[in-house]
Amino acid sequence: MTDSTPPTGLTAPKLRLGLRDGSDDGWGYAPAPESTDHVELRDRYGLFIAGEFTDAADGRTFETANPATEEKIADVALAGDADVDAAVAAARHAYDEVWSKLAPRERGKYVYRIARVLQERGRELAITESLDGGKPIRESRDVDIPLAAAHFFYYAGWADKLDYAFPGRGARPLGVAGQVIPWNFPLLMAAWKIAPAIAAGNTVVLKPAETTPLTALKLAEIIRDAGVPPGVVNIVTGAGETGAAVVQHEDVDKVAFTGSTEVGKLIRRALAGSGKHYTLELGGKAANLVFEDAAVDQAVEGIVNGIFFNQGHVCCAGSRLLVQESVAGEVISKLKDRMETLIVGDPLDKNTDIGAINSRAQLDKIEEYLEIGEAEGAEPFQTSCPVPERGYWCRPTLFLHASQSHRVVQEEIFGPVLAVQTFRTVDEGIAMANNTPYGLSGGVWSDKGAKAFRVTSRIRAGVLWANTYNKFDPTAPFGGYKESGIGREGGLAGLHAYLQPEAAA
Amino acid sequence: MQISTATASFESPPIDAVGVEERVARLCSRSIKKDAKLQALHLTLSMIDLTTLEGADSEGKVRQLCAKALQLHAALPDLPHVAAVCVYPALVGVAKRALEGSGINVASVATSFPAGQAPIEIKLLEVRRAVEAGADEVDMVISRGRFLAGDFAYTADEIASVKEACGEAHLKVILETGELGTLDAVRRASDLAMRSGADFIKTSTGKIKPAATMPVVLVMLEAIRDHYRRTGQKIGMKPAGGISTAKDAIRHLVMVRETLGQDWLDPDLYRFGASSLANDVLRQIVKQRSGIYQSFDDFSL
User: Fold this and answer.
1) ipTM
2) Active-site residue flag, A281
């Protein structure tokens, strides 16, 4: 289909698409910032242990900042070994004395209650998420918060139906779960971890990421206000050392980690021989395959959703575009046009498409890859959208003519950077998609249903989307092959990760 | 791309309806406030084809509509005027006289509007008569029956002959998308119309529901964009039917802005076919300027 490819030798007429003042003349969108008036944020946050907020034993704190302004939001307690000990002890006590003895139906009620309050306080949580993490309010409002609530609702339903988790056999919880989550979906990842764990009867010690602790701490408030017995959920804030203390704690029965492959490998080594259960959800470098029979405009939209959603800070991002040569020209020129309409800037502006990069460290990493890609010989393309002076920003970026041997094709960048390659045949496309150490996700674009099924079944990745991308649902298992991780979260599989089957009756 | 009746020229790319709806939902999430909103409201007024297409239309009714076109709201004399007044062929002369020297075009539906179920000779005669009476623009309907039966060559020829009969008048081709059934058919009919000589493509007659839904309009805008990229030729777009509020209109402008860019935000390339839209837009303009909503009775029919 060469429908919109201009005749050879002619460059396509240009569309004037930039939407922000300065990027194009004429009618653009005025700023439409979400009001923050009703959001209460404290200057100081403590650890949530045994149902109460407390300072760290040694009084240490760290700062959490707004990546869009580089301004400090609050001081947050930094949990040391003593605090992690206290949190695990609280979780153990709650498991032994309360939670494991509670009627399953009662347990479910608490989980439902958390879900409902998440919905009720959705706007406040969305704004907090965008302030602390830099993601656009459109996404925190429409994706993060509703999905977090949906996970609690879904697993609340399982609480009194665990007999059906392993048909014909009973199911028991594992005990105390130590959970470490990343900064890209702070509240949503907390929901992914906490909801199945407590619904299945476990108790939890959760460590949020150091750049984005605030929504997890607001969740702690919600859990406390919902009357969940003290110690069932404990939240300890801090950086890598705190996380290591949680993961390696000898009284933790189950470890759940979402984060980098590098840290995932360390955790797996540390857990070897310990007898602990674990699930690891790690990095990815997903291929988004666009075939010549795809609905091109909708595929372009899917490519954009795949890589520019949440600034590309998504483990399952479609960060490699593999497009069939016969439509490559059309797809890439349409993709560039679509990218020109992406607004980069204030995360609280309802029209912002791409918010702030989460931290200075992450921006440095992305910028390093921008240099690497160029040095390797890929051709960069960035849009012309103006960005604010302060804060951490990266315009949406393509690396055209990237090659399988390039680091920008092989390594996870975790930013709004898409490596673009072409393929000639279906087999070649599949081979390229699979030629990666990762295997978390992937996308296939074709108007032919049979082809979509055939191709997806040959890609070695845990999650595959056909003619869509980055769709999440609490009922669907999520997890990776190869270096993308072990185990599944979400759905029945995600429940299994927090249960053990009893011997057959 | 030259006009050809070979089957190959009727090829159109596939459309994924689910993807189109998602894109529309995302476009609808744009928040247009303050100056951007006021600008959009003014732009909307300048793009309206003020329309009356009733069996009961009389000279008096048309003169009243033209007076409204000339002066939308007496209390706000600085507003732009609408783009055109759209009437049946029999009333083109009346409208032409009423609008003389105003810069407002007279558009006439023709080709046995709205069903289009008449012999081609009669359709062409109707077009010629409308143009002779002074129509600056002709809104034709395609023969949906022939199109749905797969007779694309007939549809292409029909459009090309109407274009010829139009002479200097601009041709808007009404696809009547509510009768086409799928977005694939909407895309195919759009491509066919543009390749056969349409100056504008238009969604609907306003007599059939659904009419100008956002997914249908998006698919047509994308067809216009692809045609432009291939040929450099700018085809106009006219959604008609079902757009009755300022909020709807602004959503359409957002969709145009992000699909075709700044150039199409112009009455020469974008029109709203509407009868009740103008007053809602006027009411919003008064609200933006004064902070107060007024009763609909404060705006003329």
Assistant:
1) 0.94
2) yes
